[in-house]
Design a protein that fits this description.
single chain, about 55% strand, mainly beta, about 120 residues
């Protein structure tokens, strides 16, 4: 299974972007779908998570501005990013993990660049 992200780009501060992540193969029972952000010189950070039960959690700095969701087929996860700030700049990776032993899985996408100009 491969995860393919899209939707990144260059946007001015205050603008919006919608990131999409779609799995190429079948995804059965997942535990969580996540968006991470990688900034050069900094640790990978978890930006948003949605569980199979629909619970969402967000990085404090994006609360109220970003919204994570997934579609009913459970093959795609989205990140709606509003009121973007320059500090939101980075490479955004999606991750889908789940399954039960011994069939656990942990899939990552290659990443999509988001650049917010001031």
């Amino acid at each position: 299974v491969q995860l393919v992200e899209s939707g990144g780009g260059l946007v001015q501060a205050g603008g919006s972007l919608r990131l999409s992540c779609t799995a190429s193969g079948r995804i059965d029972s997942f535990n969580s779908m996540n968006w991470y952000r990688q900034v050069p010189g900094k640790q990978l950070e978890l930006v948003a998570e949605i569980t199979s039960g629909g619970k969402t959690t967000y990085l404090d700095s994006v609360k109220g501005r970003f919204t994570i969701s997934h579609d009913s087929t459970k093959k795609s996860v989205y990140l709606q990013m509003n009121r973007l700030k320059p500090e939101d700049t980075g490479v955004y990776h999606c991750r889908i993990e789940g399954g039960s032993p011994p069939w656990e899985f942990d899939y990552w996408g290659q990443g999509t660049q988001v650049t917010v100009s001031s």
